[in-house]
Amino acid sequence: MSPASAAAPHVPVLIGAILARIAPVGGIWIDGTYGAGGYSRALRAAGADHVIGIDRDPEVLAAAEPAEGITLVPGRFGDLDRIAINAGANEVSGVVLDIGVSSMQIDAPERGFSFQKDGPLDMRMERAGPSAADLVNQLPEAEIADILFQYGEERASRRIARAIVAARREASFETTLALAEVIERQLPRPKPGQPRAATRSFQALRIAVNDELGELVRGLAAAERILAPGGILAVVTFHSLEDRIVKRFLRTRSGGAPAGSRHAPVAEGPAPTFDLVTRKAVEADAAEVAANPRARSAKLRIARRLDTPPAPPGAADLGLPARLAREMGR
């Protein structure tokens, strides 16, 4: 736990809504996005016998303090079934995932996730592999535009990509503010209260650097494989791309028609593997948003594992961005 989180304990988003819908809590749980450990501690306090916390960020692993009944493991939640088995759990009672970047990462300028303060253009959760600087300095213009449009839903993606390529001919991008300034010169000034204009582009680059959507797809399938009958899958997302994937996964895995086909007959497919606990996404109430503004965009979906074999890979139409679908061979 960081000094900041020790002084002001981290309150995980929508934890009250999760616990209210899954009680009683028991058995072994997986917290696939450990971060400051808020979900793991809340699950233990609610009655979980043991929690396996997973995090891919080496700084989280270095800062975490030992806690009774919580085992912290380095890795990605896309491998959570393998990690659980290696820890001696062939089945688990629940999986909770808080998708996206953590407050600790955003608040550290040296990590390069945010442009609120200047820092190196990094964005790597694992401090390994290509950074955001590598992407904007090396990728062709068309690929940069593709990333900005598909992962950031940025309508001015081509104009921004063209400006990035022009600017890098003069000097390579090294810092967050240098990139943000080029992006924001291509866009209208936002109205008061709206996010800064470069926000969508930074989100897109972060998702691409860390393969966040691909990891989410793998994590959902891994949870399906490792959950015991009656086990709970709870997923908190923070933007529409993530929520769309979770929504479509749970809809198809619970026997519903694919998105956009509600008037068509349900095609014969694998037996349902989940029963929906939440029919619609749960959002934070006004009190939680006031206490934690990050909760404003959060959406929670929960499902309970049925006693059926996991569905075969690719059985769900997840509405993936075309770039990711190509990379995953779908």
TrEMBL record:
Record field: catalytic activity: cytidine(1402) in 16S rRNA + S-adenosyl-L-methionine = N(4)-methylcytidine(1402) in 16S rRNA + S-adenosyl-L-homocysteine + H(+)
EC class of the enzyme, as a word: transferase
InterPro entries: RsmH, SAM-dep_MeTrfase_MraW_recog, SAM-dependent_MTases_sf
A GO cellular component entry from the record: cytoplasm
E.C. designation(s): 2.1.1.199
Subcellular localization, as worded in the UniProt entry: Cytoplasm
Key words of the record: Cytoplasm, Methyltransferase, rRNA processing, S-adenosyl-L-methionine, Transferase
Functional note: Specifically methylates the N4 position of cytidine in position 1402 (C1402) of 16S rRNA.
Organism of provenance: Amaricoccus solimangrovi
GO molecular function: rRNA (cytosine-N4-)-methyltransferase activity
Top-level taxon of the source organism: Bacteria
Protein name: Ribosomal RNA small subunit methyltransferase H
Entries under PANTHER family matching the protein: 12S RRNA N4-METHYLCYTIDINE METHYLTRANSFERASE (PTHR11265:SF0), S-ADENOSYL-METHYLTRANSFERASE MRAW (PTHR11265)
UniProt key word Acetylation: no
TM region positions: none
Family: Belongs to the methyltransferase superfamily. RsmH family.
Main location: cytoplasm
Protein residues bound to S-adenosyl-L-methionine: 37-39, 55, 77, 98, 105
GO biological process per UniProt: rRNA base methylation
